[in-house]
């Protein structure tokens, strides 16, 4: 989500009240896993995945990555460069080579000799999302969510 943590449950309940019956199963799943089911005294159980774990609002506000795609790409490259069923010594050698290559790339990035490339489409989306989260307290909720939907073509 692209809203502060303290508003997630309030906005979920608002969406839940307006949701058509056809998506009740999805709402139920989402509530159990990401929001927490209601219990006594107007409280909720702990969700399977804490709101802080999946909420993107602070990450965008602090200009941090929203996804772990770069980690996935590095892991995939490591898998393809390593051998299948290596001995422990071969694994150590492969990890040392990878560490050396990563150190060189970090030095090149710091020196400005190399720049990480991202698709323009995703750079633009990140900029728009950062502008959106910075306007959270300035817009009405309806306008805020309308702009968020527009960014993802909903």
Automatic annotation (TrEMBL):
Report what the protein is called.
Uncharacterized protein
Name the species this protein comes from.
Answer: Rotaria magnacalcarata
The domain of life is Eukaryota
